[in-house]
Write a structure and sequence with these properties.
Blueprint (H helix, E strand, L loop, with lengths): L2 H17 L3 H19 L6 H17 L2 H18 L6
Pfam family, one: DUF7553
InterPro entries: DUF7553
Length: about 90
């Protein structure tokens, strides 16, 4: 069930990528959307380290954008955080 957070993050990022006007930003968002979508489809979810890398990349995107686009990316980041809270370990 928790993997649904990653799927929702991926879907939110796909929409954000469609809304992005800057090609480089669109590419970065698309990369994160694809990677999170693949993680959501796996039986075993990612570990804390992998999630931290995605969270860092998403925070960088939030910092590099503004307005509705930044809000969409921040929503995706919130979903990754919510998933990370379900991961045991560190």
């Amino acid at each position: 069930m928790a993997l649904e957070n990653l799927q929702e993050a991926s879907e939110t990022l796909e929409q954000a990528a469609a809304d992005a006007e800057d090609d480089e930003i669109r590419e970065r968002i698309t990369t994160q959307a694809e990677q999170l979508g693949k993680l959501a489809d796996r039986e075993r979810g990612p570990d804390h380290g992998r999630l931290a890398r995605h969270m860092h990349a998403l925070q960088d995107l939030v910092d590099d954008t503004d307005g509705e686009l930044a809000a969409q990316i921040d929503d995706a980041l919130a979903n990754v955080r919510a998933y990370r809270e379900t991961v045991s370990g560190v």
